[in-house]
Specification:
The complex is a heterodimer of chains A (503) and B (177).
Chain A lengths: L2 H12 L2 H19 L5 H8 L8 H25 L9 H12 L3 H35 L3 H18 L4 H14 L3 E2 L6 E2 L13 H17 L21 H9 L2 H16 L5 H15 L11 H25 L5 H12 L8 H4 L1 H29 L7 H20 L2 H19 L5 H23 L5 H4 L1 H31 L1
Antiparallel strand pairs in A: 1-2
Chain B lengths: L9 H7 L1 H26 L11 H30 L8 H7 L1 H20 L1 H15 L5 H25 L11
Classes of the chains: A mainly alpha (503), B mainly alpha (177).
Amino acid sequence: MPMTDALLSSVEQLFSLATLVSMMIGVVAGVVAAAIPGFTITMAIVLTLPVTFTMPPLQGVATMLAVYVGGGSGGLISAALLGIPGTPSAVATTFDAYPMARKGEPGRALALGIWASFFGALISAVVLIVAAPPLAMIAVKLGPWEYFSLILFAVTVVASLVGKSILKGLMMSLLGLFIATVGQDPMMGVPRFTFGVDVLAAGIPFLVVLIGIFAVSQLASEVENPAELHQGKALVSGKIQFRPFAVMREVLSRPGNLLRSSMLGVVIGAVPGAGGSIANLIAYDQAKRASKTPERFGTGIADGVVASESGNSATAGGGLIPMIALGIPGSAVDAVLMAALMVQGVSVGPRLIMDNADLVYGMFLAMFLAAAMVLAFCLISMRWFLRITEIPKSIIVPVVLVCCAVGALALNNRVTDLYLLIGVGLVGYLLAKLDYPLAPLVLGVILGPIAETNLRRALMADEHWTLFLTRPISAGLLILAVLSVAFTVRRILRQRAAARASI
Amino acid sequence: MNDNPEMVSRPVREASSERGKALANLIFNAALAALFVGLFIQAGDLPSSVWEPLGAGSFPRLILGTLVIFNLAIMVQSMTALRVTDSVASVGAKQWFLQRRLAFATLAAFSVYALLMPWIGFAMASLLFLLAVQFILGARRGRRLLIAAIIAVVFGLGLHMLFSHVFLISLPPGRLW
């Protein structure tokens, strides 16, 4: 399909009433979910997935992107007004937005964050549009050797970035890869590890694993401490005044900070496993280093808010780059988006842009549209939504658990999926308590079939496994994989030595 | 050191669970290693193919074999941790579960909910589940119990209406009626 046709077709699909309405609901849901401490953006997106099954592909993905972009801004509310990050992506936002709110400028803190998020998302969408198509053109030329090595690299990077122990991280990735082998073999169609159980014949349902890991086990952790259950947190009191246009000028008067933080967010978002939770801290740190007045950071200055919020929002577009161009999700959220496309029968990989150009352009446009909707929604109605953070966890947790049950039932309408969900939730909870990171497991599950297919294709084309080491791109990726593990081991050993020295 | 673990502050409690964690890691990885060895042997029976050198069983065997190596490495790490940590300061397994009783009670209620759902239907089961969990989490009497009841009715029936009528997801109607 020529580019202009694809673009027109995506505009037509995106600007239909049904899509606009579902995106708007998605934006509201994302903002609200991220504003509630203990309710993560990933949880919100995982729970949105089942309701998109009945929608056309672009409407479904656009709605999920709306939740994603909305969530990026929602974490700001509790960060600015309570000093508690609503999501891990808003940790650095608390450093300056909260002091600013306490100094009597809560409206300015919120508006700064909203505008910074908007521009961050906008810049990342531009980078996505520029970078994804050429990257996909290169990716199409990659052979199965390069693809397998790329996945190996992605898996080791994820395992070394999250959690405290690289052994546990790598073990979780491998466990994910193994879980993906249950069910039919991707090349021969032979059933594997099904033990005669019908439910396992089609494999362990990915959606159930996602909901169990990211929602059920997380919710169980939320209700551990009885003291935190009943009382919602009271917000900064007093009247909140927005001066949207004055603040917009304030944000735009810091182009260096805005651009640097957004670009950092894009790059960090594109690295598998790293996302908003890392980007906001690095963007903040870099803004502080570049500042002429670093000592004022942490006292409630605009630069801190702008850096953190534009950095975390820009990861949204960054994470989509490897997913659209390579078919490899950059984060758990992108894995969910990829699952949404796969459920719709769209095959995700480097040919996505060529085969489904209208869908990909639609996703680009949806990013812009969602960013604009979040901006409009937050500026118009934020003051009425501020009380959300006061809802106690004793109400949130059971209501969200019911939504989890709906999510598990949505795919096949089987009660056995519900039992599986509880099993996964319980195991996920115990794993988290034993310090096993769960994100590598989920990425392992989604990358498993791609890894296996490429490995087998490579050896089918040529039996010599040495090709993985002699083809330059493949070898380069394998060296990067080894380096990412080596650097992490070195970092951990140094930290341990430092800890011992300080005792 | 405080005798009553409920009174001990959270960081101390977390630190003192290190020994339990090491022990749990040891047992967990030993069990997983045994499971993976069994699956590794079973994967050997999967058919190979004349068209490709690997066949259906090789990739799972590669993963399972590597997993066992990781299990053994984590077991060695846990044994070292077990030797280093102080056994007196540690909380026992019973105490560990007691401290997290609300989380386990919520998961137990969720299990009962799943078991009841095919019989009494999604709407009714959700209503009871919402009420029960809010009760478990502290809405025992007076105004809070009333709010819990209202939330149970509104969300139990409301979510059923929303998902089954608006999003067209078919939910269990219940075998009993």
